[in-house]
Write a structure and sequence with these properties.
two-stranded antiparallel ribbon; single chain; TIM Barrel; Alpha-Beta Plaits; 14 strands; 33% helix; alpha/beta
Length: 310
């Protein structure tokens, strides 16, 4: 595997994690491949290392021995220590020399380039679990459609091997690109953040027009996805938003909707990345609030599940 930033080009993919034995990203036991880079920057994102298309450097302060090895290894002399806390300078190229030098593993680089062939070899290690559980592979992120050629190459290779495939997508991609990736998968898990355009832009950084258009195109083509809604108090859980979700999704005849309660499990990652955590003051939804949201959608004729925290 080669360190560095790269977009998937059909031969290589830029990923930041492979999670085995997942039961939350589709049917059965799954291997989830996390693609690097996302066009959205949701306030509540629990994988902030997924957002940038470049590698991210994480610092685990509690492991740091303050030995200075990483500072000495930095070819750019761009790893200062301030108040006994290492900082990543603005000129950092994410070369990874500091990571290699740290025997305490206090530094980690999130994001690396791998060939599709190597990725498939990793996936094939889990074939027995797929066969016994009806599981398979899920491409997540970040956003798989942002590396469309690589994503399609992985999906096609899995299909040849009769491995069930799914993609988890925010739906924000050029229409043709999105559709090519979506139809290459057996299942599409489509994350829908908010119906109100202003709310969506404020909390994710983009308008939702393209997202809704891609969802509608997918349904019209006879490939209705499972829609997943992260329920975030104070953002998209109002009665008005719930009714908008219900009316819109029932009109599209979406087969299933999964509600994912917001949580702060990923908060620590922001500190390790040196990023502000904008969801710090957002409360987690109560069970009663989740039930109320579910009932609003169910009364519109939708099949609704309440999943694990988003």
């Amino acid at each position: 595997m080669i360190r560095g930033a790269a977009s998937g080009n059909g031969r290589t993919a830029n990923i930041f994690n492979i999670m085995r034995y997942s039961t939350q990203d589709g049917p059965g036991i799954r291997t989830t491949v996390f693609f690097k880079g996302c066009p959205l920057s949701c306030w509540w994102c629990h994988n902030p290392e997924s957002q940038s298309f470049q590698p991210d450097l994480l610092y685990y302060e509690e492991r740091c021995r303050h030995c200075g090895d990483c500072i000495a290894a930095c070819p750019e002399h761009n790893t200062p220590e301030i108040d006994r806390t290492l900082r990543t300078g603005a000129r950092c190229s994410r070369c990874g020399h500091c990571v290699d030098a740290c025997v305490a593993e206090a530094r980690r680089l999130a994001g690396h380039q791998t060939t599709v062939e190597d990725l498939i070899r990793e996936i094939e290690k889990d074939l027995v679990f797929f066969e016994e559980s009806g599981g398979g592979v899920t491409l997540s992120g970040g956003e798989p459609a942002s590396q469309a050629d690589a994503a399609i190459a992985v999906l096609d290779a899995c299909r040849v091997r009769r491995i069930h495939t799914a993609i988890e997508t925010c739906g924000f991609a050029p229409a043709e690109t999105f559709f090519r990736v979506a139809i290459a998968a057996d299942l599409v898990l489509f994350d829908l953040k908010a119906m109100d355009p202003e709310i969506h832009r404020h909390y994710t950084g983009v308008w939702n027009g393209r997202i809704l258009s891609n969802l509608e195109t997918l349904v019209a083509a006879g490939c209705p996805p499972v829609v997943r809604i992260p329920v975030v108090p104070g953002v998209n859980d109002s009665d008005d938003e719930a009714r908008r979700f219900a009316e819109y999704l029932s009109a599209l005849r979406i087969p299933a909707v999964e509600l994912l309660p917001f949580h702060r499990i990923g908060a620590e990652k922001y500190r390790r990345l040196g990023m502000p955590y904008r969801a710090a003051d957002m409360p987690e939804p109560t069970a009663a609030a989740m039930s109320h949201f579910r009932d609003t959608l169910a009364h519109a004729g939708l099949h609704v599940l309440v999943g694990e925290p988003a």
